[in-house]
Every structure is written in C-alpha cells, then in structure tokens.
C-alpha cells in the first residue's frame, strides 16, 4: 500500500512537470511568432514607398508640423509602454546626431520625464494614448514604432529598433563633407599651379632666346 501511494504521488508530480513544460513551450512559441511578425513588418500598415496621410499638429515648443514639413525619423511612443522606455535612450542618441529638425517624436499619454528628454533633441508632439492625428495619418496602432521618411514625404523604412532604420552614419557624413571640401579646393590648387607653370615656360623661353642671341653674336665676331 505505501508503494502504491508513492507511485501515485510520483505520477502526479510528473504530470504537473509535464504540464508546466508544455505551457512554457507554448509561451515561447507564441513569443517567437510575435517577434517574427514584428521583424517582417506585418504590424506596420504603411511600408516603404507608402504615402503619409494629411495631418497637422503642434509640438510642445509651439512649432506647427504637418505632412508637408515632415522628413527624417518619426518615432511613436506610449507612456505606459515598457519597450518604449527601453528604446528611448537609443532614440535620443540617434536624434542628437541627426539634428532636432530631422526628428519627430509622438508621445501618447503624459510622461514629463520622457517629454523633457525628447524635447532636447527632437520635435515632440504629445497626444492621447492612441497617438492622435499623427498616428492616424500613419495608420499606426502600436508602440514603439519607428519610420524613416524621405524628402518626398513617403516612407523609406520602418522598424521597432533604431538599428532597423538605414540611417547614415555620422562618420560617413563627416567623410562626405570632407570630400566635398577637398573637391572645392582642387580647382583653386589647379588655378594656383597654372600661373606658376606659365611663368616657368616664359622663363625657359627667355633663356633659350638669350642663348640664341649669344650664338649669333659669336658667329658675327668670327
């Protein structure tokens, strides 16, 4: 009898462990499925090449923003979104490199700390939790969501992390500016060398003419 009771208890423990393991596997599979959908961009209604809807809003600094003035990086955040707070430092870092006029942050809900951090490096629009008119123009319903907008006001790329956007590296921009600067100086160098070469040719011509006169004079004396 004691052996039977022990077997029943052991069987019950094994069944419980099996149930917990099954739940863990199912949860892991669900997380992977959500991650795959997010990486595939299925959560973005507007993809590369899509046009943005018309909208108008005012930033926390009183600046008007609209479809016609929008270009660069647009980020959607929510005050109650843990992933948004994790993304915030990287977003601020990249925004500082890109320049305030090239970054728009839309924050749903009130979060004074986030508004202060974003306001130093980006234009900030505070909206309702649904993102307000800007989110409706993008047809965006989840956060964090990042968009790279071209000069033609069309979507270039989307992502949930800054690394997913094809942003130019600051070193590349510095290298390009240096190359342009060198290109501007090249004609000046060429113009500076041209008179020197002309003067050198004139000097050589004068010496040749002087030698010819000396030979003629020598023949005349003989």
Series of H and E elements: HEEEHEHEHEEH
Question: Which structural class should the secondary elements be placed in?
Answer: alpha/beta
- Low-confidence segments, given as residue ranges, are 37-41, 170-178, 186-195, 216-222
Helix content: 40-55%
Q: From the alpha-carbon coordinates, what is the Rg to the nearest angstrom? A: 35 Å
Number of beta strands = 7
Strand order of the largest sheet: 5-4-3-6-7
Mean pLDDT: 78
Describe the largest sheet: 5 strands, mixed
Number of contiguous helices = 5
Our estimate of the beta-strand percent is: 15-25%
Distance between the termini: 148 Å
Please state the overall shape, judged from the principal axes of the Cα atoms.
elongated
Brief characterization of the structure:
It is built from five helices and seven strands, in the order αβββαβαβαββα. The chain has a five-stranded mixed sheet, with helices on both faces.
Structure report:
This protein has 222 residues and is an alpha/beta fold. The protein has helices spanning 2-39, 82-98, 112-119, 132-138, 170-221, and strands at 56-58, 64-66, 72-78, 103-108, 123-127, 145-149, 155-159. Mean pLDDT is 78; it is low at 37-41, 170-178, 186-195 and 216-222.
Attribute tags:
two-stranded antiparallel sheet; 5 helices; single chain
Write the layout of secondary structure elements.
Blueprint: H1 2-39, E1 56-58, E2 64-66, E3 72-78, H2 82-98, E4 103-108, H3 112-119, E5 123-127, H4 132-138, E6 145-149, E7 155-159, H5 170-221
